[in-house]
Amino acid sequence: MEVVIVQDAKAGGELVAQGIADLLRRRPDALLGVATGSTPLPVYRALAARVRAGTADVSRARIAQLDEYVGLPAGHPESYRSVVMRTVLKPLGLSPESFIGPDGSAEDVRAACEAYETALTAAGGVDLQLLGIGTDGHIGFNEPCSSLASRTRIKTLTEQTRADNARFFDGDIEQVPQHVITQGIGTILEARHLVLLATGEGKAEAVAATAEGPVAAVCPASALQLHPHATVVVDEAAASKLKLAGYFRHAYAHKPAWQDL
Ligand code: F6R
After folding, report:
1. Ligand 1 site: residues with CB under 6 angstroms?
2. 102-121 per-position pLDDT tens digit
3. Does the model's pTM come out above 0.90?
4. How many CB atoms lie within 10 A of CB 39?
C-alpha cells in the first residue's frame, strides 16, 4: 500500500478530493464508495468546492454507501443514508437516483444484505472506495476479528465503537444501535481503488497496525495490504506511530509522475 503523510485534515481532504476529481475526468460515471463519520467530511467539502469552481464534474458520478445502522427508523437524521444525502449528495448536487445503499430499516435484514451485494455487482462494482478507520482498526463496520473474506452482513458493534459514535446521538451511548449492516471486508477488497483516510492522534495506533502490522483480522484495516491499489492518507498526528514514516515521505516526494493517487 502507499502511505501518504499530509500536514492536517484539510490537506488530506484536498488530496483525496483531487484524486476523486481526476478519476471522474477519466470515468465520469464512476461508482464512488463513501464512508460516513467525521473523517471524510473535509473530502466532501473540498469536492463540492471544486464543483462550484467548475474544476470538477460530478454530474454523472454514482454513490454507494459503505454501511448502515440497523433499526433506526427510515429518515432518522443519523441513519447513514440520511448522512450521505446531507453530506455528499446534496452538496454535490446529485439526485437520490445516483445512490445505492443497504436498507437498515428492512424487516428482513439478511435479505437486505444480499440485495445490496447484488446491487453493487449490478452497478459494475465500486471504482474508488473511501474508508475511515475506527480506533479499533475497523473498516466499514467490520469490527476486530471479522473474516477477511466476509461479505455484506449484520454485525454487532463493539462498545468502543458505540462510545466513539455516541457524539452523533447527543452523547448518549444507549441511543447508538447495537447492530449494523456493513459491506464485508471481502466486498470492500473488490473495489478497484481503496483510499483510507485517517486523521488525529486517536487513530495513530490503528494506522500503524494497518500499514506496518501483520495482516490479521484483529485489525480489519490490515486487509488493505492484500489489495493491489490501496492508498492510506494520514495527517501528521495519525502518522505519529509509523516506524516507516521517513520512508513513506521519501517515496511520496519521489512519486512517479504517471502514478495517480
Ligand atoms: C463509517 C464507517 C466507519 C468510520 C470509522 C471512523 O461509514 O464505515 O468505519 O469510518 O468509524 O469514524 P470517524 O471518521 O467518525 O472517526
Report:
1. 35-39, 66-67, 80, 132-134, 138-141
2. 999 999 999 999 999 999 99
3. yes
4. 24
